Amino acid sequence: MKGPEGKRTKTKNLGGASAPVENSSLQKTPVSEDGGETLSSYWLMKSEPESRLEKGVDVKFSIEDLQAQPRQTTCWDGVRNYQARNFLRAMRLDEEAFFYHSNCREPGIAGLVKIVKEAYPDHTQFDKNSPHYDSSSKEDNPKWSMRSLILS
Questions:
Q1: For the chain, is the Cβ count within 10 Å smaller at the N or the C terminus?
Q2: What is the DSSP string of 2-57?
């Protein structure tokens, strides 16, 4: 994989995440020069920019959708993969992530985002009308978390 400025990057796949797309994933990507010292690390937040219905709800979310949000900020909800959830919880404030368009005609990095809120319970797990509803998750012990992101 080629990283910023055409430099090689190492990528460790960290599973599924979303905003609000259930089949998206997170990756932590250390950027290095020819196997040398790591310059910085980025998360890879995958989202589907083209319409896709899930339980009757369009779960599309693109970089343009993020740009249209108030203050260009959104919650990254709908993560329903335990490994991805754990990595989502491991993210720290002010860390950066590549916003990646997946499952579309032109997949690739569409922008850069920053983590602006610590992990907190994902409200969609309790909403019976949400495609991300999880009947086994309890409000006093939620299974799923989300983060808030801002366009960098």
A1: N
A2: B-GGG-BB--EEEEEE-SS-TTEEEEEEEEESTT-SEEEEEEEEEE--S--EETTE
For the record, the structure tokens of 4 come out as 């910023």
CB 15 within 8 A of CB 22: no
Q: Which amino acid is located at 34 in the chain?
A: D
- Distance, in Å, from the CA atom of 96 to the CA atom of 152, rounded to the nearest integer, reads 8
Query: For residue 62, what are its two tokens?
Result: 């693109």
Other CB atoms within 10 Å distance of the CB of residue 22:
20
Q: Taking the mean position of all CA atoms in its chain, how far away is CA 24?
A: 7
In the 8-state DSSP scheme, what is residue 124?
G
Which two tokens mark 100? 């990646």
pLDDT (tens digit per residue) in 42-99: 999 999 999 999 999 999 999 999 999 999 999 999 999 999 999 999 999 999 999 9
How many Cα atoms sit within 13 Å of 26 on the Cβ side? 30
